[in-house]
Design a protein that fits this description.
With 323 residues, the chain is α/β, with parallel strands linked by helices. The chain has 14 helices and five strands. It has three domains: 82 residues, no CATH class; 128 residues, no CATH class; 71 residues, no CATH class. Helix 9 packs antiparallel against helix 10.
């Protein structure tokens, strides 16, 4: 019963979990009893997670040094953040990481409408941390090692351009390629168009369409130069244009979109943006206000459910000595 209460609590509210147990399982239990079980077993799950994070600091295992018996597919990692509300603290960022295999299938390309081979993420697994990036980096690297990251032929890290993501990538995934999510690059291009021609105007739309193709082809550095020249000619838009020029300049090596796509890598970070939405669906619903400890106890439970690993997490938590 405790296992089912904890599992349901990672999916729905404590009140809904109690209702489901009563209705489907004919188990009379109150929402407060469900909460108490999550308090106990969530702490055990946190201990499992802490043990796994320690892997990131440990020396490589023999298998990691010698290589696995079976081939490892190309792997990717992505990071993002979403907001959750804490009592007495307000809105705080929940940092989320995702590790995935890369598969290539024929799909419709959104830019041209053509059917082409495109890479996408499969077999996703997730980690999350409420706080600074360091612990998320340890957890994500531990997950990547578990997924045999060191023996993948090629690896890639995706993000939205936030500095903390690339700092973690440089620290933990320093041999991997880096890609700024295509959607966020388009968004910054749109902001440049709006600064230059006015938001939503036909001129802004035309300018955006004219410059999307060069950006897709990997000419971010040239785009940055053009934006700086435009800033000199259009003083009213200079600040915005220089800001976007800096964004494209700083991330130009991460914006080789056509090259990356042709080599079978994803150029969008939708897999981790979807993960943030899934965490928020349970943790940031209407009127939800959490204590920090209460939310942190649910994070490994929610992550395990999303990763289709709850049974494995439960077995490890069950056999740990009680805290």
């Amino acid at each position: 019963m405790a296992k089912y209460a904890v599992w349901l609590s990672g999916l729905v509210t404590y009140e809904e979990a109690a209702t489901i147990l009563k209705t489907i399982g004919e188990i009379p239990i109150s929402a407060s009893s469900v909460w108490r079980r999550v308090t106990v077993w969530g702490a055990q799950c946190q201990a499992v997670e802490a043990t796994q994070r320690a892997i990131s600091l440990a020396a490589p295992t023999r298998e990691e040094l010698t290589g696995p018996a079976t081939p490892v597919p190309n792997l990717g990692a992505a990071m993002d953040g979403g907001m959750v509300h804490l009592r007495e603290e307000g809105w705080k960022e929940l940092k989320v990481g995702c590790v995935f295999e890369i598969a290539v299938q024929p799909m419709r390309e959104s830019h041209t409408g053509e059917i082409v081979p495109l890479a996408h993420a499969v077999h996703n697994t997730y980690v999350a941390h409420l706080g600074g990036p360091a612990i998320l980096g340890e957890a994500l690297w531990a997950e990547a090692r578990q997924r045999r990251w060191m023996h993948a032929r090629e690896t890639v890290v995706l993000g939205d351009g936030a500095t903390w993501i690339w700092n973690l990538a440089a620290d933990k995934f320093f041999t991997s390629r880096q890609v700024v999510d295509w959607y966020h690059a388009q968004l910054h291009l749109a902001q440049a168009a709006n600064a230059l021609h006015g938001e939503g105007t036909p001129k802004a739309h035309r300018w955006l369409r004219e410059h999307e193709t060069p950006l897709l082809q990997g000419h971010a550095e040239r785009l940055a130069t053009d934006l700086r020249k435009l800033a000199l000619k259009h003083p009213h838009a200079a600040d915005g244009l220089r800001r976007e020029a800096g964004y494209f300049q700083d991330n130009s090596r991460r914006m080789q979109y056509l090259e990356m796509r042709e080599e079978g890598f994803p150029i969008g970070s939708g897999m981790v943006e979807s993960a943030c939405k899934q965490f928020r669906a349970r943790l940031a619903g209407s009127g939800m206000r959490w204590s920090r400890s209460g939310l942190e106890r649910l994070l490994p439970i929610r992550a395990a459910i999303m990763s289709h690993r709850f049974d494995d997490l439960w077995q490890k938590a069950y056999h740990l000595p009680p805290n």
